[in-house]
Design brief:
The protein is an alpha/beta fold. The chain contains eight helices and ten strands. It has one domain: P-loop containing nucleotide triphosphate hydrolases (Rossmann fold, 3-Layer(aba) Sandwich). The protein has a six-stranded mixed sheet, sandwiched between helices. The longest helix is centred in the C-terminal third of the chain and has 16 residues. The two termini are about 30 Å apart. It binds adenosine-5'-triphosphate (ATP) and magnesium ion.
Length: about 230
């Protein structure tokens, strides 16, 4: 479990995250909320990319940057901004000793692009590469920030399959998304952020009545029909 207590963050003189308490464990957790609610910043705090106050523990041990980076795989909202490798093969292996690079590329259908620079891939292929890279070492926790953006049907399905496969293998998967109709059926838990605070957290049924107030469009299926909210 990752336990977050009283986490706050100030950016440019404004408090953008306020006293966040959150428990994140196994299964698939969806993190939703309006634009600017603080979803990305909260996950950046977990990774040690922001200077927050408050406390975090990871599987009982106190948080530090190294532990966070070893424990949490992360696909950022705009993965193309952070590619480090000169080729896809180099990107998957970058800083990850012992990774079976060709196995990972094969699993994600990226083998033909092994020697291609990541920035030359299409948008959807770049997302696939980022997902392959983040999961290459099977981290116990995985954060996907808007993973369905700009993906076609097969890309969305592949991403959902990876989420489910990881979750079944025991990885805690946290998915930030505005696309509830694509994935809500698979959510074990939903957390709603509003203006930097947790306004609701629980099962889909428990939080359904709060979607609208959180600025999240409730999928048309209704609280009893959300099992149809999947592109799989
Ligand atoms: N460096 C910064 N300086 C000042 N404000 C910032 C900075 N970075 C982010 N913010 C503000 O913090 C708030 C939360 O940003 P964040 O990126 O976490 O939103 P989000 O919930 O991920 O939104 P979206 O759905 O649009 O991705 C926003 O109002 C944003 O403008
Ligand atoms: Mg964001």
């Amino acid at each position: 479990m990752i336990l977050i207590r009283s986490l706050s963050l100030v950016k440019a003189g404004h408090r953008v995250l306020h006293d966040i308490d959150l428990d994140w464990g196994g299964g698939i957790t969806l993190l939703a909320g309006a634009n600017g609610a603080g979803k990305t910043l909260l996950t950046r705090c977990l990774l040690g990319l922001e200077d927050f106050t408050g406390s975090i523990t990871i599987d009982g041990a106190s948080w530090n940057r190294d532990r966070a980076r070893q424990s949490i795989g992360y696909v950022i909202q705009d993965p193309q901004r952070h590619f480090l490798g000169l080729s896809c093969a180099e990107e998957v292996g970058f800083g990850r000793r012992g990774v079976d690079v060709s196995g990972v590329l094969r699993r994600f259908g990226l083998e033909p692009y092994a020697e291609v620079p990541p920035l030359l891939l299409s948008g959807g292929e770049q997302r696939r590469l980022a997902l392959a890279t983040a999961t290459a070492l099977n981290p116990p926790y995985l954060i996907l920030d808007e993973p369905f953006n700009a993906l076609d049907r097969d890309g969305v399905r592949e991403t959902l399959r990876v989420m489910l496969e990881r979750s079944r293998a025991g990885t805690g998967v946290l998915v930030i998304t505005h696309d509830l109709e694509k994935c809500l059926a698979h959510a074990d838990r939903v957390v709603l952020l509003q203006q930097g605070t947790v306004m609701a957290a629980g099962t889909v049924s428990e939080v359904w009545s709060k979607f609208d107030a959180a600025g999240v469009h409730p999928p048309g299926a209704g609280p009893d029909g959300y099992s149809t909210c999947t592109w799989l």
